[in-house]
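Lab notes, practical 5.
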Amino acid sequence: MFAVITKTLEERKQAYLENLSKYKARIMICAGTGCVANGSLEVYEEFVNKIEEHGLSVSVAVGLEKEADYVMAKSGCQGFCQMGPLVTIYPQGILYIKVKPEDVDEIIEKTILNGETVDRLLYVSPETNKPIGKADDIPFYSRQRRLGIKLCGHIDALDMEEYIANGGYAMAEKAFTQMTGEEICKLMIESGLRGRGGGGFTTGRKWELTRIQEDPVKYIICNGDEGDPGAFMDRCLLEACPHSVIEGMLIAAKAVGAQEGYIYVRTEYPLAVQRLKIAVEDARKSGFLGKDVFGSGSDFDIHIMEGAGAFVCGEETALIASIEGNRGMPNPKPPFPAQAGLFGKPTVINNVETFANVPVVMQMGAEAYASIGMDTSKGTKTFALTGHVTNTGLIEVPFGTTLRQIIGDIGGGVLNDDGTNCGLDYKAVQIGGPSGGCLTKEHLDLPLDYETLKSVGAMVGSGGLVVINQQTCMVEVARFFMQFTQSESCGKCVVCREGTKQMLNLLTDIVEGRGTAETLELLEQLAETVKVGSLCGLGKTAPNPVLSTLKYFREEYNAHVFEGRCPANQCEAFKKYIVIEEKCKSCGLCARKCPVNAIEGAKGVPYTIDKEKCIKCGACVESCKFNAIMIG
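Output from the prediction step:
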């Protein structure tokens, strides 16, 4: 298909901005997965209905109804997931949090019609106890450095014209019409941009290795198979700013001479898939994809493929096998995909975040981009900040940022199980997902970058960052991640298939009270063996949570094995239910609720629990009205 380009990017930009200026206000509703799950679409519909009830006109897209008073927009994830649904009123830039449909009328009356704020819906600073009106003044946002996700949450996720109005596709046009592939690769190398999917290989060198291959057929693959528990960086980018990923792939295509590309995204991301399909079609209609891209004489088109959710398909050779219609299993390297990848042809594979950063690098220039971050880790990194932390969400910070800054300044501190804030008193931070490792409070001021994290047995990974409080059992944490990787092992190599299974069994023995000194010794030996002997990255990194917790929390393992207790009092096998004699009223309610008749007593005499019979179901604790039963 040949597209006819009737307007330049600059003309489209000016047309959009002119249309936008005609509205009195713009109401931006966060329509990322998290906010949608919390009812943001209902809030959106309520705004449309209520504005019309006031006798005013509203448009659901810029330029659709030029005479309308107000315009509505659905953005992608704005990052502040803990506070959703989020509503931003422009041009004031006022951010409202936790908005419900019943709040809409008040927002319209006070803010949209009279320019006043609804203070009860503003974010309140825990430091000053005062409401903050604008997102840029909230520490969660102000202490980040957003480059790759700078447009996420600020533009209509489905409006390509708004992406263009913010400089979108200008760098792709420049690449196709003004630069050679060699120049682009050199620029990327000089910028220091590294792959954000976990391996951290230099992006420009990967492209250059593909560019110099003589085969005329080459491919670009975007790896959107994000599968780490608690990770949602790629999903948010694809939902909020899919055109940035497409533009990055276009630049890569020009750099290496590729004519075809694939975006491989898991089918569990239906919103991302839907918006990607719309974005690809819009780009195709505008002549940015397909034949004669930007009138340059070069062709490049993109296909979207939905993966079935296999974690191992995040590994590049397994992903390639899946696209080819085969079972997603890794293959030995070399040859590397740059030499023989998809259908045996030279192939560039980068993840979503990497491609989103490519236009940023070109726009800033190599030197400016390389000035951000650390010596060998340039630029910024997005993290999915989750777990026991006040402000969960999507963040982006320069490489070299510390946990003190992320957890304290951006995250707002650690939460105990009872909801109280304990500042920076965390037990561990799991970084890099199931393939990563645990960091402790001694790493509070450790700069987060590829090499530094590797030196302490962790990794940047794709960007999962799970904060763990003091009430958590670290042996159970290791078991949780091992259970995940064991179930996701493709089974191709024996070391990974059987080794992860046996490690899981050994960890289960420990948390269920069957562990011995031999169990600990065998667990450590097995972890080292799986790390060395596995075929792909899944198996090689699967032991990381075990090895890092053994290194930093050995005393918790020892307590389970040698002292018969769980220091965090979480493992059922070590819980002891004890009657507090001075509180017991001898009412007998606990005995009547016990399913195994493990509680005995008489009137006037405190009841007792037979530890041999007790199955630790907790029924006695729930039934006691006098808090006379404790778990010791």
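Observations recorded by the TA: Residues 494-511 form the longest helix (18 residues). The two ends are 72 Å apart (CA to CA).
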